[in-house]
Specification:
single chain, 223 residues, 2 helices, 35% helix, 30% strand
């Protein structure tokens, strides 16, 4: 079993059964409100028939009580009662050896142990693999990392443009001072070049302002 998306399972194990092989992850991590996929795959020495059954159960932490949350035999039968009512959906394909399910809108109360049992007569099993699910809130650290990445992608290029603009303006100012001290008089061509350069500098300045506005806008959307 494993989770899709942002979060995933850890410690994949192979469980040999009598005629059936189970593949699963021992641990799955998810986040509150974000759909979690628990994957259970199997291999059977017999062809898949309408006698094949799949049963998912759940056991809360520090409890010996188990709860049936999903049953499959030709059709899907998710639980209609209990903690997982209307939140379990079929995500597998028995003809591809996939017995996976998904949990919608997970909460902290969903933490616990899940098991997937597949029977494909005449193949039987004697050991049911288990998966520990841990659901947590997305913390400040996750949001902070997103803001840091945004800063790298937007702020740093803007800062480079500003530095280059300041260096260009500094060199231009130094050149004007030297020319004014020596009584130098610009030609009509140089005046035209200076006008073009001023327009370029103005465009660079507008670009910097626009980048800063984009950064502020994206920062506000993040929070």
């Amino acid at each position: 079993m494993q989770q899709s998306g942002a979060a995933g399972g850890r410690g994949r194990a192979l469980f040999p059964l009598l005629g059936v092989l189970f593949f699963q992850d021992a641990h799955v991590r998810g986040y509150v409100g974000e759909k979690i996929k628990l994957r259970c795959t199997f291999k059977s020495t017999s062809h898949v028939s309408d006698k094949l059954t799949i049963d998912w159960t759940y056991r809360p932490p520090s409890s010996s009580r188990t709860e049936s949350i999903f049953h499959y035999q030709s059709f899907q039968y998710p639980t209609t009662a209990g903690t997982f009512r209307d939140r379990i959906s079929w995500a597998g394909d028995v003809y591809k050896g996939d017995a996976s399910i998904s949990i919608s809108n997970p909460t902290l109360k969903d933490n616990g142990t899940f098991s997937c049992a597949v029977k494909n007569p005449p193949d039987v099993h004697h050991n049911i693999p288990l998966t520990e699910l841990t659901v947590t809130e997305r913390g400040f650290g996750t949001m902070l990392s997103s803001v840091a990445l945004l800063s790298i992608l937007v702020f740093i290029p803007s800062a480079v443009v500003v530095v280059l603009l300041l260096l260009r303006m500094g060199r231009k100012a130094t050149g004007l001072k030297k020319r004014s001290k020596s009584g130098y008089k610009k030609s009509s061509i140089e005046v035209s070049d200076d006008t073009d350069q001023e327009e370029k500098d103005e465009c660079m300045a507008r670009l910097c302002v626009r980048c800063a506005e984009c950064l502020d806008s994206d920062y506000e959307e993040t929070y």
